[in-house]
Amino acid sequence: MPKLNVLIAGSTGYIGVQLVKLLLKHKYVKIKYLCGNSSVGKKISNFDKSMINEKLPKIVKFNKRFLSEVDLIFTALPNGEAQEISNYLKSNNVLIDLAADFRLEKASDYLKWYKKKHKSVKNIKKSIYSLPEISKKEVKRFNIISCPGCYPTSILLPLIPLVQKKLIRLNNIFIDSKSGYSGAGRGVHKKYRNKNLYETISAYGVGFHRHNSEIEQTLNKHSTKKIIFSFTPHLTPMFRGILSTIYVEAKNNVSQNKIRSVLKNYYHSDVFVKILKNNTLVSTNDVINSNNCHISVCKTKNRNRFIILSAIDNLIKGGSGQGIQNMNLRFGFPLKTGLI
After folding, report:
1. Which domains are seen in the chain, by residue range?
2. Of 35, 147, 150, 293, which is the active-site residue?
3. Number of C-alpha atoms within 13 angstroms, CB side, residue 227?
């Protein structure tokens, strides 16, 4: 099988660097261009010493002429920049975006939540929002693939099957998510310089975090009734990992075992989603440096209320690994390639 020529735009951010490291292990990929802005002329090993002996191109500024030389473009850029690149795509190009540029189905919603006018409205309908375990049958038909955000990944994987099977009440879902500070990008140290980042936990985006939009959009696609939820993210003094704690109320005396059984059956063929034994106390340590999502259903003192724990590595399953998983599905590569 011939190798794909790949361009990575935004190669020096936390997710971009992680993507390069994973793609180096992928036997069907050749990294042809690494693109950046302030890092032009530098080596990627300047940002991660583990790649110092790898033969990789130096970082260059993106140029649309590169698109005629590559098959696949990964974009790990600030919101809005992948939209611009999408306007120059050739017919044989596939774009996989790790930011939010094509996550929302309406340009008006993008403006509302991201405070920016969409720069490629024509391409919204040509794109797919692809959580791989959910959209694996459809993704092959699209040349613009939008990867979900890290928080939504940890939240949607456990909730979608329960919503589809009508096992939980839809008007009182509460979600508390905690992320390592890498989720805020390399600028986190300046942005939170007055927050004592390495020793405290901070709530942010309370009530109106941007990821509310894609969580709501996706859950409502799997439900006949409108879903009402509250989502609060927190920044924690660890580098990577997300733990989402989701509080749900079961319908019609649905048991803990029933909820776990539905999740287990739903993901029985999905190698990266692990449904653990009931009441397992999930830790981010169990998923760090993997493309796995660990899910546990826990009982509470209230008969019909359960707590679902969901853990991922935000830089892999919540970012670069999910992008590679979508790439493997899109091009028909073995699903685990580059990820295990």
Report:
1. 4-147+318-331 (3.40.50.720), 151-314 (3.30.360.10)
2. 150
3. 31
SS3 label, residue 75? strand
| Token code pair at residue 286 | 């169990």
Dihedral over alpha carbons 190, 195, 201, 202 (to 10 degrees): -80
Amino acid identity at 297: V
Contacts of residue 261, defined as CB under 8 A and 6 or more positions apart, other chains included, come to none
Verify whether residue 150 is a known catalytic residue.
Answer: yes
Q: How many whole angstroms separate alpha carbon 266 and alpha carbon 268?
A: 6
The secondary structure of residue 110, as a DSSP letter, is H
Task: Give the C-alpha separation, 146 to 300, whole Å.
Answer: 36
Alpha-carbon distances of 222 from 28, 213, 217, 219, rounded to whole Å: 34, 15, 9, 5
At 58-107, the pLDDT tens digits run 999 999 999 999 999 999 999 999 999 999 999 999 999 999 999 999 99
Helix (H, G, I), strand (E, B) or coil at 203: strand
Measured CA to CA, the distance from residue 81 to residue 121 in angstroms comes to: 13
